Description:
By secondary structure, this protein is of the alpha/beta class. It contains 15 helices and 12 strands.
Amino acid sequence: MADKNIPMSGFSSLAIHAGHQTDSAYSHLTPIYATSTFVYDNAEQGMRRFSGEEKGFIYSRWGNPTSAEAENKIAAMETFGLLNEMGEPLQVKGYLQASGMAAISTMLLSNLKAGDKILSHYSLYGGTQDIMNSLLPNLNMEGIIEDLRDLNKTEEALKKNPSIKLIYLETPANPTIQCVDIEEIAKLARKYGKLIACDNTFATPYLQQPFRYGVDFVVHSTTKFLNGHGTSIGGIFMGRDLNFMKGRAYKIYKLIGGNSNPFDAFMLINGMKTLELRMERHCHNAMEVAGFLESHRAVAKVNYNGLASHPDHYTAMKQMRHPGAMLSFELKGGLQSGINFMNRLKMCTRTVSLGTCDTLLSHPASMTHYSVPKEQREKYGITDGLIRMSVGMENIQDILVDLDQALQ
Ligand SMILES: Cc1ncc(COP(=O)(O)O)c(C=O)c1O
């Protein structure tokens, strides 16, 4: 049976077929290769595998066929329709990881050495922020935080700090939904000879392709929209410099040991096949919800990139197909109204995380940011009455009815 590595003109065709290799039993779906190791016919074959003379799997921390399908599918989606400098289809290499955090750590540790600095936007996922604050300083590396939406400030920071090795973007960012201009920052990265990485978790490759702008690395928490069903934790670290990815990055990936596992990879592969359909529905519902909340008397403010009132609306629309499915809104009554609202929800789900079929809501002040002093979290826009929402794929009228009764 032929493997389907033919050119495909549609994103869903690619999401469904890309990365699949026919196995010896001709399984329709790639099996869960629940094995730690792979065997050789003889010692010579083992030698050929270890020397790289013969392609093949050796040990599942180094690579596994189920994980490989997920890696190749995500790489195909992230490069869909993109060409390299020679006008050929762009190729990137990715390593599937145990979590988004493992992917970010492996990317950073493959690239940085003691004395290096990273430049990053101030709104980042809390865990990534903590890597900058708590992990990198111990290794004599430093994270410099700036408002990367201000290109003058970004350029100033690059001029002032020649030891910046890497610019790190997360756009849209968790939890503020702020966006930075990937194309403009990538231009600055090239001008000053810096590497640039982008966390594409909130957007997914269906909405946004950072490699289009010359970004060197893309990372994801696959736990979210890529998996789409909340069935596993995972991440991926991808890069466009194939020599680097197959050399230094592969070595660090193997040494850190943050590889994914075949069961989670299987769940991810099947979730990703419906990415386009899911994102279309998620984004449609998010726009409806944002409009509804904007005109609701109990709501003081709505943060959604799709609204013209959002400060990063232009940037989001420039680089994203749709503005995504994440939004936040501020209730008029502060902390208690946030708690009351959460308690009244009937259909929508009270939880953290994002990107599942159902609508998820969290109240950062009483949940994820409970232990962060009020003044500190308010600096980042996390007020007492802020609610974060991952808009799901239920029928829109049911989402709106639930929100409306909870807002009474
Ligand atoms: C934007 C972003 N990046 C990375 C992560 C970390 O992902 P994981 O929980 O899979 O380690 C998260 C988790 O919420 C996230 O929102």
